[in-house]
Amino acid sequence: MGRQLPAREGPSRHLASAALPVTGATVPEGYLLRARFLKYAYEDEQNSCTAKPHAHPEHVVFWPERGSGSVEVNGMEQSVSLGQGVWVPAGEPHSVSDRDGDMVALHIAPEAVPWRGTEVKLVTMLVAVRELLLYLADAGMPREQRVQAQRVCLSLISDEPGSVVQLPVPHDARIVEICRALVADPADDQTIEHWAVRLSVSSRTLARAFRDSTGMTFSQWRTCARMDLAVHLLDRGLPVGEVARRVGYATVPAFSSAFQRVVGKSPREFHPVLSA
């Protein structure tokens, strides 16, 4: 999970530092935002992120479309995993050393969100928001319709990271079969070696395909599937001990540790009224 960075104080947040390179605007006039994959070159490449510290006149949210990624913000590395984003306010110094991965930068006009953007923080990037943003990046549509969709996206970027379990959708047919089985029964404890035998491939090939298709290892994806079900069971009021057993954990401490790691809270913090 990423670390939340402290807010930076001082005039540099308002682009007052003459030594800091500041790019031009990325969001077209009359619009609210613009999303772009950092691995691609654009017609206004001079406004893109580089490995050298720089700032933008707009807020930027960085998130990975697969696996994880990192951005250096004001001299501190901020790591984000799938489903998370890091909000970098306008004028905040940052750099991106790796532009070959699947990091996306969402530039947001400050006037579009006057109530936000004063601190560097982690945010939640829901699957639906990410997909809509990427759709808007390529789709043609009337200006009013596009702006309306952009407003929806901005309203759904949550300031409470870690409360939603993200399950990346695989694109490899072999991995789809495994993921469907895990969603149907997250407590299934078959190893990837067992699945390799069932699918007549080597375990090394299957492990590589799983990571390539989901951005996660087999074990990481299964844990997220278990925690996704656990969240729903806890919401229904089931005791922690029963939830642990239903999602494949022999002991409550082992379940609680995994839940804390994925969700960012212990089961009892998530639902304080529950008992084991």
UniProtKB/TrEMBL annotation:
Domain of life: Bacteria
Record's keyword terms, sorted: DNA-binding, Repressor, Transcription, Transcription regulation
SUPFAM superfamilies assigned to the protein according to its UniProt record, in alphabetical order: Homeodomain-like (SSF46689), RmlC-like cupins (SSF51182)
One Pfam family, short name: HTH_18
Gene3D superfamilies: Homeodomain-like, Jelly Rolls
InterPro entries: AraC-bd, Homeodomain-like_sf, HTH_AraC, HTH_AraC-typ_CS, RmlC-like_jellyroll, RmlC_Cupin_sf
Claim: Ribonucleoprotein is one of the keywords in the record: no
Residues covered by the HTH araC/xylS-type domain: 176-273
Protein name, per record: HTH-type transcriptional regulator RipA
Organism: Leucobacter komagatae
